[in-house]
Design a protein that fits this description.
The complex is a heterodimer of chains A (147) and B (574). With 147 residues, chain A is an alpha+beta fold. Chain A is 27% helix and 26% strand. Chain A is built from three helices and nine strands, in the order βββββαββαβαβ. Classes of the chains: A alpha+beta (147), B alpha/beta (574).
Chain lengths: 147, 574
Amino acid sequence: MATETVSENGQANGAREVATICGFCGVGCGLTLKVDDGVIQKVTGEKENPSSKGEACIKGREGWRHLYSEKRLTTPLVRKDGELVPASWDEALDLVASKMGEIKEEHGPYAFGTFSSSRSTNELNYLAGKFVRQVLGNSNIDSCNRA
Amino acid sequence: MATFGAGGATTSYEEFENTDLIICWGSNTMECHPIIYNHMRRGIKNGAKMVVIDPRKIDQVKKADKWLGLNVGTDICLANAMGHVIIEEDLYNKEFVERATKGFEAYKEKVAGYTPEYAEQITGIPADEIREVARMYATADKATLNWTLGITEHHNGADGVFALIDLGLLTGHVGKYGSGLNPLRGQNNVQGGGDMGALPDKNVGGWRWDDPEAHTLFEDVWGTPLPAHEGLNQPEMMDAVSNGEIRCMYVIGENPVQSDADEHKHEKLFGSLDFLVVQDILMTKTARMADVVLPAAASWAETDGTVINSERRVQRVRRAVDPPGEARDDIMILRDIANRMGHDWDFETAEEVWDEVRRLAPKFSGISYERLERYGGIQWPCLDGSFEEISDNTPKEQLMASTKGAENAEGGSLTADVVEKEGPGTMFLHEELWAEEVDNRVPFTPVDHEGPVEMPDEEYPFQLTTGRRLAFHNTGTMTQDYKKVKDNEELLEICEDDAAEYGIEEGDFVQVSSRRGTVEAVKARVTDRVRPGLLFMGYSFPDQVPTNVLTINAVDPQSGTAELKACAVTIEKA
């Protein structure tokens, strides 16, 4: 591994390798991300991973390019006069919280449904379940993890 | 896998390399789970036989000893006929059936009507081939039975899974190294999503919504009571949107308008909401309909956290790069909404969230970030001794998981020492079924065959089945940016005879219509992978070819999954 420097916001710069798990199918192959100046350069199978032992398919090796897709969302959007327009996080989150609060007030806790993502982490899925049950007060949560 | 309580593949990948028979049933493993397939290929090299059961002559068939190209949606009939043969020829594992199962007589009675000759008429597989594969499975020393959405994406998908599990019970091919029953997961964290309680009837750790013990535990950890009602699953939520009961949807990392059956209907429903929040990494069709769109970080490269794979291994994802622009980690977005709505979620890291999970879910209690670092991944269950009140069986038994108390009592008096000694968790599940005394016998769940809801007729003479292809993923949001990949577009697989009859040649564009919608143009691939009357399409290029405008929203009430694998269509040259 090359030397790395740490910038003001705590992010490492310079060339380095990071071990993670592929974001596509349920095999869960270990990947090594080769990162330079905060940008992925190359992805290979991680040799130490006990499930995949260094192997990775085309999705794992090449699929990372979607991280740099033009379709990535880079700012919160809120609908104004029928159009989705950029907004600050505070504006977007305040709007979500106040609208959800209003709907709960008016229609009760069962007026909500939540889909969680089987592409995201355990921590997200756990918190989505907690959000639905604790904050919204229902159990209407599902994702494509029933099959 | 409701039969066993905890849902998860019972074997580990390495067992594919040390088994005698690998059955891939409704699973295009080579294209959809290529690295699991590599393990299987090494198994074949080591002498294992492979049986492929799939309506299409997929590439994997070339490597198989046997291919059963059954009619779409006749899997239960085939499984029951195999059970019929195994019982009739006295090949079932009597010792296992007597000691570890219950309900055998009812199963025997059910499959009595499924003679191979009857099944031949339904499935299209010659009776003798059914007999041969039944014998192969029953007489193998070690055998794994593996399935994916070819079994579950039907209106009676849960029954399909039961029919396969029944075969495993009948032959005793479960709970031993090299033998098991494996649902292979489609997305990177399908396993984790379910294990974490992103389900309407189960909380994290598999606690059922109505379990009084869970209510006490959660109130203790969360400081608030759990809702006293079971929730709605995905299709039920759509019904509730339709009748106005649900006014607001919060969609995190899914694209239901394009991924679910009957796209037109879903588009209308999402359009009717008072408020739609979509949180995703990419602009999707669903996001374009939202009132608020929240930009998320990609979990596997831009955040810290854990995921769980198809061998129940909890693994760490790590933040390697920053998300673009102002995109943020999902968990921080949720935290900030919860706090704006009057709660006090005060974590700063994913590890703190995971430690809360460990307090609620016995099977993860021994899996700390620190131990994940040490072992490079740990297979659940893995206990730490903090749930000793639940059970008094031996540490060894608990480490091997169990059907004891089904969903919620996998804990036990494990000491930290035992966990340390065993290292990376539990390799295979249900070894306890081979103990001298089996406390909780596994039930057979006899089920009947029922064909697809919509069969071809005069007006719509073809059967369409759908699936994923090697390089592409689901609604394509993550896989349309390859530089150079073969067949980087949607294709309609059609056999030579059918193509000739409609004047279609390789590369021609074809219009495909069902009762629900029309795909204006999809490129024909003339191939012997499909038989006369059967067509196949992927669904990874929905902006050009919206396959799911064709599919039928016939939902299995048990599993909440739609019959994406079978509908009736008609074609003409575009």
